[in-house]
Amino acid sequence: MRQRLWLxxxxxxxxxAVVLFAASRPAGAQTTRRDEGxxxxxxxxxxxxxxxxxxxxDEAVRGRGLAAPSPASEPTGTPGATATPQPSPAPSPEADFxxxxxxxxxxxxxxxxxxxxxxxxxxxxxxxxxxNDAARDALRRGFDWRPAxxxxxxxxxxxxxxxxxxxxxxRDLSGPFFGDYFRSVKSLGKWADGGKFFTNxxxxxxxxxxxxFVYVQNDPRGKSARFGRGGAYWRSRLKAVAWSAxxxxxFEIGPVSQASIGNVGLHGKQTWIDLVVTPxxxxxxxxxxxxxxxxxxxxxxxxxxxxxxxxAARVLLNPTRTGANLLRFKKPWHRDxxxx
Length: 340
What we know:
mainly alpha
């Protein structure tokens, strides 16, 4: 029995290492490209600042030596009187140099107006610009394989940890590991496994939905897509269903599954119902939670200032999204949108 446990744990650790290594390779390349892009952006920003500093230095020299000619003024007084040019008002030291304002200068040759960039300064919108840059960078990176895989493996560990608390799982830990595993998988045949309705048609769809949300919360395009808004939303949810199907199939008949650790197939429990209902029922459950989050949860949030009521609405109306949040060590009521 101990050898069986050690072999199961070794397989799980080996699978985790292989998947994480494969996921880290593209992540490392993306990080290198992102660092190169940031370095290039810093270089361009430095050159732009140097150019603006040069313009300001020229203005200072002209202020000490040459007077800036003013544009010709319209004649005043009686007809035939000589028009007296009016001097251009000097810029005030207290001029507003916030973002969006422009400081105007004149060329020494003939008063032609020069185009000057907005004065540099820390504006309130700068933080928002940084957030937008981060969002665009995430969209370029695409799906984050490594954290998504880590979260799915954590959920797999929770599932098997719970299964090992059951006597029927521990009963079959003895015996040849691979022999019992292959015999269990080969027994896959009938539809129903004799389980309870709640287990087959509620718990398993919730499992599929939770795995789907693991995909969504690691997909920059998917988590920003609103329910029912064009093709982007539905494409992301179809990908989430594929992700859920892959991981739920692994849990049923994969190398670290109920077939390999619990040998459920040896007792007539290796059936099609879990392989089919988990991802497909999970897709329906996931979309239903998205609809509830958009219409019901947001309606509650817009009608009350009670923070506890808002938290309860988010958690109770989106239970599998809540579970997916816990897998990434976020608050259960976390949303990838403005906070409460």
